[in-house]
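Sequence dictates fold. Next comes a concrete instance:
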Amino acid sequence: FAALWRCFGLLMMNYKVWIGKSVKGISAKTMQLYCLVFASRLLSIIRHQGYLPFDKTGDWFYHVIEFLSFGSVGLVLYGIMGPLKSTYDSRFDKFGNLNVPNEYGIVYLLVPTLLLAIIFHPELNKEFFSDTCWTFSMYLEAVAMIPQLYMFQKQAGDQAGTVEQILGHVTFALGFSRIFELCFWFGSFKELSNASGKAPGYIVLISQVGQLLIMGDFFYYYLLSVSRGVPMELP
């Protein structure tokens, strides 16, 4: 369910991009982070089965969904950097431009999550690289929406805070998927422990809870707008 929600959200984003011929309001940095999330996860799950569902969905279905999500992110990035570049709001996509060129702002999220994954990771695949790739994807996904939320706030100060309806649905879907992910790994918590103890399991769960907390404000205003049937507005 978590993978399906993510995929659904990214397919909706592609609908917005290619039907509307615009990437307005989409953070290229969030898309870059999600591209790394899916790439690192696929590097783990196509070679080993330690982090796959034990039922038949772990044989092929989960892989297909993750590949589809990866391709969807790639298509959006292609639009941002290619044919739809003129519609990209680079003046609002400013997360992490402190002391580094704006296009490299994701290093403030990328480097800490990579170091954390190298130090604290489960060992279900019994291979350092594969285990680190999977854990890195989990930690990075927890913070991948931050540039997008930051972009919303920048736009709010310039455009009365209105968020495009379909983009609000997409962001909600990507965030809501973590609830299913959290339920899955909470139930499988003991599997995440390794020889050094339960630290990897705790950090995986904390990363999932962390994203829900990060997006809590957005969820509130999104559900408020849906319940009232009005466009979503951020303060």
Summary: The two ends are 31 Å apart (CA to CA). The chain has nine helices and two strands.
